Amino acid sequence: MDSTPPPSSASPFDMVSSALGQYMPVDGAAAAAGSADPQGDNAAARRAVSDNPTPAGQEQILGAVNLDRDLRITRCNLGAPVFAGVEVVAGSPFVDLLPPSDVPTVTRRLRQVLETREPHVARVQRLRRGDGSELVVSMSILAAAAPQEGLTVSLIAMARRLHLYAAETAIGTSLDIGETAQSLAESLLAWGDVTAIDLDFAVWTGEAVTEQPQGRLRLRRAALVPDRAWPDGYVTPGDDLPGDASRLLSQAIRRDDAAQAIVVPDRETIERVLDSPRLVRALVPGDQAVAVVCIPLVLDGTPPVVLGVAEVWRRADRPFADSELFDLQELVTRTSHHVDLARQHQREHTQVLALQRRLLPRSGGDTIQTASVYQPATPDSAGVGGDWVNSFPLPDGRTALVVGDVVGHGLGAAATMGQLSMEARALLSAGLAPDEVLEHLDETVSLLDDAESGLAAGYSALGSTCCIAVYDPVSHHVAVASAGHLPPVLVPPDGPAGPVAIRPHPGLGAEFALREPYDVHAFCAPPGSLLALYTDGLVEDPALSIDEGIDRLTDALSSVHPWDALEQAARRVVSAVAPARRRDDVTLLLARMIGYRKEDTATWRLPARGDAAARARTLVSGLLGQWSTREHTRDSVLLVVDELVTNAVRFAAGPITVRLIRTGHGLLCEVGDTGNGRPRLGPGGLLDDAGRGLHVVHGLTTRWGVRWTDTGKVVWASVER
Questions:
Q1: Alpha carbons 90 and 70: distance in angstroms, whole number
Q2: 3-state DSSP call for residue 327?
Q3: Contact between 154 and 139 (Cβ < 8 Å)
Q4: Which DSSP category does 72 fall into?
Q5: Are strands 656-662 and 62-67 parallel, antiparallel or unpaired?
Q6: No. of helices (H) and no. of strands (E), the chain
Q7: What is the DSSP string of 659-696?
Q8: What would the DSSP string read from start to end of 241-262?
């Protein structure tokens, strides 16, 4: 019979039935009846289909359901064999056909189409069958044509090619190894009742697998669907499979030096193969008779590498057909490379985070307390950028605080970040001032961006920023220099908090015409002061200006009490200030200044005369007596001071400054002058007078070095007590 109604009375239900009639049941009685009893109309429809095959042997995959405004079924056409088991009852709610977890979302979509009359098309949806299994369909929701009310829901059973395409597209949307495995497991559920993805431990952690031995796999469960409560002992995501289970699966899928799928048709065979109640509890998802197909995830290569195993479980009364096994293998084969891409991304993510952790400050020391927080913008390595912080003691007793923000994300940014961080540490330890260090970093970024090493690698660090602060625990002064970075925030113990007034400067690697000498801003940070260095991700919020973001950070820092634990305070500040929707990494370094006690330091200024060395020995000797220093240590310190002062008088001009500091592990001697020559330890012999004093200093100290100042230099030496 002709099921096409007149145009004036055509409804979406009838239009769908007419336009796609060759793909759906053509039983007119079923389409027009008010009852949708599967034992009645659907059975009749199936008989009609068998009597009237579709043109060209087309598979019947489309059905339609009409709903009233209360979302109850008024009529349906689900008589195709592919819909067998979907129990439709006229007058029942449409959501009775859905898994409970999908009811809220689908209900919202249905009501939205009722209100707006805008169609919702091609939603991948599952329908419940009476036997507990599920059918995957593509569902579209259309508004009924006037004057009729309600909805028409078209359901297209996911044909093999359509489902393979949709599954592969969904699986390739994430580079997270867990999400990729979960997408694959959900796609495989169309062929079974329970699916699981077990990955080799090396794949899960992102390690290299190209040299993977061809023997036993160490498997970890990466995904499992559906999500429900499982019996005790069953392996769930994140758990390692028992060693015996990994060994059995490895041996089963590796035959004749090739990875092949295996099918176990019933529970009796499974129990015989596993030969252990413990392994049965760990691997078999229920007490019902089950069949399973295990398909290896293989990475093409010479030789091929097995990444893991996909398991599809179903009841034994539904054996796997050959065509289904072919489909399963095709889907797993198509998507194995997505799993390997996620593994490579995980490897990069692990490397970047390892470098980030390597650069995080360890501890502050006796003169300063530090704490840091680093939070990537996203959990994966695409959100792990080039933000870095570091704090470390300098050999001369000062402490360096460094924060930087390298342009970009991922491994390229991390490599540049590590290079700049280590270079800054080396230069600061060598005695260079913060502005001189930034000049070197600026040149490094320019060199990294040349045609050979930078642009050819597809990465540019131009515009990266850095801020360096050096704290002197004796004078309680901080020297800060910045290259395009946001200013630090200082919270003094008795005074208003606020950002440090440093002059803005372009970022690292700026054009030569824009380069200017870096300024060094010095300020006093008395004991108890709190200094915060951070990156822009902490204070940049689309809803606020950058100044408002810094003001919020200042207010949060002002609430930190002097006796608050600094680690907890740092996390609390980030929680209060960081934007809810982060677009960049968040980095914060807090430093609480302690400094040396006055009784542990002494400073003298002496004229550069011939008696300066004798005068220095007298002053230092008296102080060492007050400190009850051991005789051996006192003799070493006096000899070192004598040699350093003598060299200062001989090779420099102007007044000489002598400073002695009692540290936790020894004594630090400093002699400053106005000269700009660098003392060097030469290869002079016993009879060579030139440089003999430095050889004496070198033999009596644990370390010695030079740092440069605006007026000259300071030679320092450390002596153990």
A1: 13
A2: helix
A3: yes
A4: B
A5: unpaired
A6: 18, 27
A7: EEEE-SSEEEEEEEES--PPP------TT--TTHHHHH
A8: PPHHHHHHHHHHHEETTEE--E
- Which residues, in sequence order, are CB contacts of 87 under 8 Å at separation 6+? 38, 97, 129, 130
Distance (Å) of CA 668 to CA 37, 296, 671: 94, 65, 10
What is the token pair recorded at 430? Answer: 């060598």
SS3 523: strand
Mean model confidence pLDDT for the chain: 79
Burial of 441 (0-12, 13-18, 19+ CB in 10 A): buried
Q: How far does Cα 392 stand from its chain's mean position? A: 26
Burial class from Cβ neighbours inside 10 Å (0-12, 13-18, 19+) for residue 333 reads: middle
Cβ neighbour number for residue 149 with a 10 Å cutoff: 12
For residue 225, give the 3-state DSSP assignment: strand
- Closest among 415, 358, 347, 406 to 381, alpha carbons compared: 347
Do 239 and 224 touch, CB atoms closer than 8 A? no
Residues 379, 700 contacting (CB under 8 angstroms):
no
Token pair in block for residue 537: 């991700």
Taking alpha carbons only, the member of 701, 687, 612, 602 closest to residue 653 is 612
| List of residues 6+ apart from 103 with CB closer than 8 A | 95
Q: What is the pLDDT of residue 618?
A: 92
Contacts of 150 by beta carbon, 8 Å cutoff, 6+ apart: 66, 67, 68, 69, 74, 114, 144
Task: Report the residue count for the chain.
Answer: 721
CB-based contact 345:310 (threshold 8 Å): no
Of all helices (H) and strands (E), which one includes residue 270?
Answer: helix 267-274
Pairing of strands 290-299, 656-662: unpaired
Largest CA distance in the chain: 124
Token representation of residue 631: 């005789």
CB atoms within 10 A of CB 504: 11
pLDDT given for residue 488 in this prediction: 95
How far is it, in rounded angstroms, from Cα 305 to Cα 303?
6
Q: What is the pLDDT of residues 321-369, one digit of tens each?
A: 887 888 788 888 877 777 777 777 767 666 666 666 666 665 556 789 9
Look-up: residue for tokens 């009775």?
A: 96
Hey, what's the torsion of the CAs at 596, 602, 603, 606, to 10 degrees?
Answer: -170
Q: Which phi and psi angles does 9 have, rounded to 5°?
A: -110, 10
Q: Got the DSSP string for 690-710?
A: TTHHHHHHHHH-SEEEEEE-S
**Alpha-helical runs (H) found in 518-583:** 546-558, 566-577
Element at 143 (helix H, strand E) = strand 134-143
Positions in the chain short of pLDDT 70: 1-60, 158-170, 172-175, 205-216, 254-258, 289, 301-303, 346, 348-365, 378-385, 409-411, 450-459, 511-515, 682-692
H/E run at residue 491? strand 489-491
User: How far separated are the first and last CA of the chain, in Å rounded?
Assistant: 108
